[in-house]
Specification:
The chain is α/β, with parallel strands linked by helices. Helices cover 26% and strands 28% of the residues. The protein has helices at 68-77, 133-145, 167-175, 185-194, 223-244, and strands at 2-7, 22-30, 33-41, 48-52, 80-91, 101-102, 106-109, 150-151, 155-158, 178-182, 199-208. Strands 1, 2, 3, 4, 5, 6, 7, 8, 9, 10 and 11 form an 11-stranded mixed beta sheet that branches. Helix 1 runs parallel beside helix 4 (185-194) and helix 2 (133-145) crosses helix 5.
Amino acid sequence: MTLVIFGGTAAYHLKLEEFATVGERRVVETPFGDSAAFVRLNPDAEAIWFSSRHGEGGLQRSAAFVNHRANVWAARDLGAAVILSWNGVGAIAPGLAVGQAVVPDDVLDMTRARLATFALPDVRVPSGSPFDAAWRARLIDACDALQIPCATHGTYVCTEGPRLETAAEIAMYGWGGSAVVGMTLAPEVWLAAELEIPYASLCIVTNMATGRWHLDPRRDFGPGIGAMGLRVTLAAAQANASSQTP
């Protein structure tokens, strides 16, 4: 089974060889432009491809300018049977703290100008949860195994960006039941659904959302965030591979 990992916040800081054996690097030409670079990890084992959404070696593009259609189409072309991702988020819900993980089970999509479909004929995105239950469970189990505090439910609100949200907007999202806020998951999760690729995501709290800073003034966008994201997603992928071994 081929699995694709999309790295979010601080993925561009990672030295992949510290986490896995590194194989070939590939940029995939798609009908929607060239994808971000994909790197094969542990090439002698089950196929795992990793891609840093925001660029390599540094933050080259913010979430509002990621070519999600090219990246998800490329994942399909690479044979992805599942997509995992991580995302740095701001915390809205009381009780969340910087450094904690959240495995979301719903999305509130507040984006406005993003290309959110492949416009394929006779494709209907299924309703209900946008996240795959089995892979959510694997991410939660991986957090437990790595002793990372993890909230097992929560709604992720995706905003347009690149500007940060106002305190009034965060208050509204909180009233609507959102736990965390970010700028990345939409339309990525909908595009995966169009191609019938199961999808699950790990959110890592990097800061409190606007208007919540008094609860925890810390902000962490450093290399440790990327390391946490890659360790958890790789652990989930490897645990699944082990469970499939006769």
